[in-house]
Amino acid sequence: MNRMTRDQMAARVAKDIPEGAYVNLGIGLPTKVANYLPVERDIFLQSENGLLGMGPAPAPGEEDWELINAGKQAVTLLAGGCFFHHADSFAMMRGGHLDICVLGAFQVSVGGDLANWHTGEPGAIPAVGGAMDLAIGAKQTFVMMDLLTKQGESKLVEACTYPLTGLGCVSRVYTDVAVFDVGAQGASVIEMVDGLSIEELRRLTGVPLAYAAQPQVA
Amino acid sequence: MIDKIVESAAAAVADIQDGASVMIGGFGTAGMPDQLIDALIDRGVGDLTIINNNAGNGETGVAALIKAGRVKKIICSFPRQSDSHHFDAAYRAGQIELELVPQGNLAARIQAAGAGLGAIFTPTGFGTLLAEGKETRTIDGVDYVLEYPIKADFALIKAQSGDRWGNLIYRKTARNFGPIMAMAATTTIAQVSHVVDLGAIDPEIVVTPGIFVQRVVQIASTTNHALAA
User: Fold this and answer.
1) Residue B183 resides in a domain
2) CB under 8 Å to B164, separation ≥6 — which residues?
3) Does the residue B38 lie in any domain?
4) Which of A190, B64, B85, B150 has its CB surrounded by the most CB atoms within 10 Å?
């Protein structure tokens, strides 16, 4: 089966982010999306620790450790960018001002429930950060993840078995083999990689999948 | 003449007692008032309840406080990181209590305390483990969780410049929790890189008005350090 690389997935998500969007990219894989946003598009990247208009990583040696992103990596600020305190930052999310957030996930349900903060395993130290605020706050929550776990289990599920981050908050899921819309109406397939059939995708996920569009090369 | 400038970090934290609740600014190490925390460690008090976004990174700041065994409870959003080994060890040994709060709820609860609100209804966390057993309400079709304010006896924060009336401005993303913690503590202590004359900070850009700050101590700006990924 063809699988998209991390970079191809990031490029695919970037295609769906329009000019003028206020966007938060979650820690990990979603941060790669920034590398594929077309420079001619004004897109405002928000970071939960208090900046809007986040720019790319600085050149080596140019890091300022008081200018960091949510993953605590050094970043830069674009001309026109600004700083603010944490309550304002999370008001941007919870208040519905952020257009899109892109998050990683352990599981997403066909109804749009998200599980991405805690495995619930005994002995695991839980950490939630801003995930719950982002998931329910942004106008649209996108998830980026591999479709299958290393054990071959689908991460798109009927109902999440891991502890939830938010209920019914995810609208679109970008995986390495297909793109799905999820929500109250259930899951539907938007795109599949070349060579993948809807029958195979239904077998891999084990969940009901609506499918109308023609398969496209992702 | 009102002069909130204190001569040293040790003098600034001299009345923090055993069992105090202490908010500490910072997101990771950005905005972490390391020298105030060092002074608190030197003071020798323990059984502290610490409110911070994280639970320490590496060897400095909140991590050093935990390593020294001074923290009874920590209220934070993101304890587990690649360099949170001192917290991890204390937590696994049952030596530290953890109250995990979604980051935006942490900010909103601190802000609510500073603003004198009795509680807030927040949509964040509804239907999750972190809202279990909490009162909920549906308002205009949206489900909310009742959360109570978080206040503290002290706030230790870091700012860029301060004057003798306590007005503060911050530097870049080191601002983070500083302004809201300053409002939510009975006594707010700011370490600043520069003490400036009254009027030197443009009143249009004062971020924390001096009414929220009780003490200001000048600490020469220190080199920040990278965090483990």
Assistant:
1) yes
2) B2, B3, B4, B5, B195, B198, B216
3) yes
4) B150
User: What are the structural domains, with CATH classification, of chain A?
Assistant: 6-211 (3.40.1080.10)
φ, ψ of residue B147 in degrees (nearest 5): -130, 145
Which tokens belong to A85? 């305190």
pLDDT, greater one: B202 or A39: B202
CB contact under 8 A, B104 and A77: no
State how far Cα A146 lies from the chain centre: 12
Strand stretches in chain A, DSSP E:
22-25, 44-47, 51-55, 76-83, 100-103, 107-109, 114-115, 140-144, 156-157, 170-174, 178-181, 187-192, 209-211
Q: Which residues of chain A from 64 to 83 reach within 8 Å of chain B, CB to CB?
A: 64-68, 71-74, 77, 83
CB proximity B134 to A under 8 Å: no
Q: What is the pLDDT of residue A123?
A: 82
Q: Beta B48-51 vs B71-76: how paired, if at all?
A: parallel
Q: Compute the distance between CA of residue B150 and CA of residue A85 in angstroms, rounded to an integer.
A: 17
State the Rg of chain A over Cα. 17
In degrees and rounded to multiples of 5, residue A13 shows phi and psi of -65, -45
Please give, rounded to a whole number of angstroms, the shortest distance from the CA of B167 to a CA of chain A. Answer: 16
- Asked if the structure places residue B51 within a domain, the reply is yes
Closest CA to A37 of A45, A48, A29: A45
- Domains in chain B, number: 1
Closest CA to A34 of A144, A193, A127: A144
Q: What percent of chain B has pLDDT over 70?
A: 97
Q: Which domain holds residue B34?
A: 19-101+150-218
Statement: residue B225 has pLDDT above 90: no
**Cα gap B108→B121, rounded to integer Å:** 10
CB A31 within 8 A of CB A54: no
How much is the pLDDT for A216?
Answer: 53
**For the segment A98-122, what is each residue's pLDDT rounded down to a tens digit?**
999 999 999 999 999 999 999 888 8
Beta carbons of B107 and A128 less than 8 Å apart: no
Residue A180 in contact with residue A173, Cβ under 8 Å? yes
